[in-house]
Design a protein that fits this description.
single chain, 581 residues, alpha/beta, Gyrase A, domain 2, Rossmann fold, 4 domains, four-stranded antiparallel beta sheet, four-stranded parallel beta sheet, 22 helices
């Protein structure tokens, strides 16, 4: 993070210089920084009062001496309040000097660019092939995409990997069902993935009812794992059908991947994992299986990390270790971020412990590993969201419903709008609303899904932020003349609402920094909401179209920077904006 753009350092410098001028006050005087107004970032030194009390002096007189001893600065202003509080605030000249250079997204990106960029691999979404994506996939998909965009915006090299569940026992059952029913994978109807799911359910029922059917399904799995041409051709077609279905949803969400290396990609690498873990004494045989224990861990000393099943089959642990090795060797990853459901915390904690020992034994540098986990989406009954018949909500159906509801809003507001334009706006508003409803929550918490709340035009919602952008756009559409020439004449902020909005703007880099540090998008959402409400307050109190060119120039600049920061923040979150709503 570029410290030149961190306003808090300016105020910290003021406090340090204050302390340095007080040799006569003794060593016990230590100005403290406390946030007097966290929302806007003014600071206050409150070390005078205890010092004055100890030395039986007048705190206000001591505060006056302290302020008089301070060197003059163009960056901050001081004042004395009450019995001797010394207030520091950024000067109007500093505020103008800070916001003026940010004319475009590139300059804003440079302000938050990392001084030590690294290579990051983001592992997210990861649906199972031959199954439809349901509402449970949306959190991993959009949280992962927003973090990938955030890391890239801060100058890091990002690789997006969709680690598909495309290998395993279930494919033996599915291949058996396809062959038994005589199904053609080129004629599965309008919803081929739903038909594949139905075939798997039939196959699963058959194998439970009939030992002969189970033996045939196992034979199909052996054939697939052995590379039988017919089985491999069917498996590849299943994967293609699934990917087409997934891609339709990813296109709607504005999500992209650099790779879709599923579990199948690593099937020829798992033996190397077994051999290396055994050679270094990291795993051991236990009741026919290969497991890893971690004696130093309270729970994992007895809770095994299963890396090979009794029947010799690999599992998630095996492929995850092989995947991590590949990402380190082939992609030179410095950091790997896994975005999954919180119920997988034990798995990833054991994976990270095992990988640490394995990489150390191989004298390899382990990438920094992060498990970005999230809670559950709840229905209004506070239970995991389901359809009326108790089934998981299909993600495609949820997104279609969001667009449908948004279209009603768009048509009510703009009844004469062309159908294609109405549909475009509905897609941007509806999809944005669903994304923001999720991203604006602390990801570690469950949250209740509510159509009324997420599509509301007031409150911390995507439509509210999108409307703020559209309202600013309308200001510039109505403007006569060149806004750039007017902004060049801008005077420093003077009114309460000018200063308040300018102060909120300068906290953009800090919001980005906190979001990146915690890997929690809701910090950025909170900042954008506060920026939008700050703009609304400014717009309602300070007229933008005024006769004074310097005053108008400043207010246009505040509008332009607010629009840029909102659009940039929403783009990082994967949310589109509109020029008109």
């Amino acid at each position: 993070m570029n410290s030149d753009f961190d306003c808090t350092r300016v105020l910290e410098k003021a406090l340090l210089e204050t302390s340095a001028t007080l040799d006569g006050f003794g060593d016990d005087f230590a100005p403290q920084i406390r946030t007097a107004d966290e929302k806007f970032g003014d600071f206050q030194a409150n070390g005078v009062l205890p010092h004055a009390k100890k030395h039986r002096g007048n705190p206000r007189e001591m505060a006056t001496q302290l302020v008089d001893a301070l060197p003059s600065s163009q960056h901050w202003e001081t004042s004395i309040a009450g019995p001797g509080f010394i207030n520091f605030r950024l000067s109007s000249d500093y505020l103008l000097g800070w916001i003026a250079p940010f004319e475009d997204r590139e300059k804003l990106a440079r302000a938050v660019a990392s001084e030590n960029p690294f290579k990051a691999v983001l592992d997210y979404s990861s649906p199972n092939t031959a199954k439809q994506m349901h509402v449970g996939h949306i959190r991993s998909t959009i949280i992962g995409e927003s973090l990938a965009r955030l890391l890239a915006f801060c100058g890091h090299e990002v690789t997006r990997d969709n680690h598909l569940g495309d290998w395993g026992t279930q494919f033996g059952i599915l291949l058996y069902a396809i062959k038994r029913q005589g199904s053609s994978l080129d004629d599965l109807g309008d919803d081929p993935v739903a038909e594949l799911e139905d075939l798997y359910r039939k196959g699963n029922a058959w194998t439970k009812e009939d030992e002969g059917a189970l033996a045939e399904a196992r034979g199909e799995l052996v054939g697939l794992q052995g590379g039988d041409p017919e089985s491999m051709a069917l498996w590849e077609r299943i994967r293609e059908i699934s990917m087409e279905s997934f891609q339709a949803i990813y296109d709607l969400l504005g999500v992209r991947f650099d790779h879709a290396h599923g579990e199948s990609f690593y099937r020829d690498r798992v033996d190397q994992v077994y051999d290396s873990l055994l050679r270094h004494g990291i795993c051991e045989e236990n009741e026919g299986a290969l497991v890893v224990f971690h004696p130093e861990h309270k729970r994992f000393a007895k809770q095994p990390f299963l890396v090979r099943k009794k029947d010799g089959a690999s599992n998630y642990a095996t492929t995850d270790l092989a995947t991590l090795w590949f990402r380190s060797e082939e992609w030179a990853a410095d950091q790997v971020v896994y975005v999954t459901d919180g119920r997988q915390r034990d798995h990833f904690e054991q994976l990270f412990l095992t990988a640490g020992k394995w990489f150390a034994a191989e004298d390899k540098t382990l990438p920094e590993l992060s498990h970005v986990w999230f809670g559950t989406i709840l229905g209004e009954d506070n239970k995991a969201i389901k359809t009326r018949d108790g089934q998981p909500v299909k993600l495609a159906d949820l997104l279609a419903e969001a667009v449908r509801r948004a279209l009603v809003m768009v048509e009510e507001k703009n009844p004469g709008l062309e159908p294609a334009e109405a549909q475009r706006r509905a897609r941007i508003i509806g999809i944005g609303a669903v994304k923001y409803a999720d991203l604006s929550q602390d990801r570690t918490l469950d949250y209740v899904f509510s159509w009324d709340k997420l599509l509301a035009m007031q409150g911390n919602t995507a439509p509210y932020l999108q409307y703020a952008v559209a309202r600013i756009s309308s200001i510039f559409r109505k403007l006569e003349g060149d806004p750039s020439s007017l902004m060049e004449q801008a005077r420093p902020p003077e009114t309460e609402h000018e200063r308040s909005l300018a102060r909120k703007l300068i906290f953009f880099p800090l919001a980005i920094e906190q979001t990146l540090r915690e890997l929690k998008p809701h910090f950025l959402c909170t900042y954008l909401y506060e920026l939008a409400t700050g703009f609304s307050s400014f717009y309602n109190h300070d007229k933008v179209m005024v006769d004074d060119s310097r005053e108008q120039g400043l207010r246009l600049m505040l509008c332009a920077r607010t629009k840029l920061f909102l659009e940039t923040g929403l783009e990082i979150l994967g949310i589109e904006t509109l020029e008109e709503m």
